[in-house]
Design a protein that fits this description.
Blueprint (H helix, E strand, L loop, with lengths): L1 H4 E6 L2 E6 L10 H14 L7 E6 L4 E3 L4 H5 L3 H19 L5 E5 L2 E3 L1 H7 L3 E5 L3 E3 L13 H9 L1 H10 L3 E2 H6 L5 E3 L4 H13 L3 H14 L4 H15 L3 H12 L9
Parallel strand pairs: 2-3, 3-5, 4-6, 5-7, 6-8, 7-10
Antiparallel strand pairs: 1-2, 8-9
Helix pairs in contact: 2-4, 5-6, 6-7, 10-11
Length: about 260
């Protein structure tokens, strides 16, 4: 049954993962978390997949966070297990070697916003609504929200949103840098695939190393970050793709990268 909760499609070297619980606004229960975990694990060594896109079924909700009906039946120890499961899942998502795009197609609250925060790029529908609303339930974000949100939008704004539990609409999300772009609901997935196509034209090893350098470097001082960048650059030097890129430029044609 877990496979029914997560729909998987591959298109133009992009894998599209669709949370499929529209009757409960695609909220997260244990079963869906395990299905996501298995899917993410399967992409770790897929060199044919250049981008992963995550979205929610329907046009009303990306993911409304944890399944509160399930949560109400859990013991304190089971709640701890749920939080550890989602935290580890989103760390694995963030650490995928290829870029991850969240197509935020509606409400994204709590854990839903945390899924988007663990992605590299967020493109939102004009009808999207996002927020870390946990303090309104007398808890705090437990899937990395207190750490990723301030790194993306800044400490002061992150504190405001987390302390108040306030939602932001798509326009404000764009203004504060929470999302990269907003688009109509009808064109959301097409816009994500368009960006995925652009990524697919680039050197696979180069993108992986750029993501590594950014994600690891942002956690350090500038000198250490520059050293990380230098080491990541060295990985690209002996590749066939680097030679192909230079050759294609000289011959005025599109490069054909192989990830080698």
């Amino acid at each position: 049954m877990s496979h029914d909760l997560l729909l998987t499609e591959e298109k133009n070297r992009a894998a599209i993962l669709t949370l499929n619980r529209p009757e409960v606004m695609n909220c997260l229960n244990f079963e869906l978390l395990y299905a996501l975990r298995d899917a993410i694990d399967s992409f770790q060594y897929r060199t044919d997949i250049r981008t992963v896109i995550i979205t929610g079924k329907g046009d009303k909700s990306f993911c409304a966070g944890a399944d509160l009906k399930e949560r109400a039946s859990l013991t304190p120890d089971e709640v701890k297990k749920f939080i550890l499961t989602i935290r580890n899942l989103l760390t694995s998502l963030q650490n995928l070697p290829m870029p991850v795009i969240s197509a935020v197609n509606g409400v994204a609250l709590g854990g839903g916003t945390e899924v988007a925060l663990a992605s590299d790029i967020r493109i939102a529908s004009e009808t999207a609504s996002m927020g870390l609303t946990e303090t309104r339930l007398a808890i705090i974000p437990g899937g990395g929200g207190t750490q990723r949100l301030p790194r993306i939008i800044g400490v002061a704004k992150a504190k405001e949103l987390i302390f108040t539990g306030r939602r932001v609409d798509a326009k404000e999300a764009l203004e504060i840098g929470l999302v990269n772009k907003i688009t109509s609901p009808e064109t959301l997935l097409a816009e994500c695939l368009k960006m995925a196509d652009m990524i697919a034209e680039t050197g696979p090893i180069a993108v992986e190393m750029a993501k590594y350098a950014i994600d690891r470097g942002i956690e350090t001082d500038l000198a250490t970050g520059l050293a990380i960048e230098s080491n990541a650059y060295r990985v690209t030097i002996p590749t066939e793709d680097r030679v192909e890129g230079l050759t294609a430029f000289r011959e005025k044609r599109k490069p054909q990268y192989k990830g080698k």
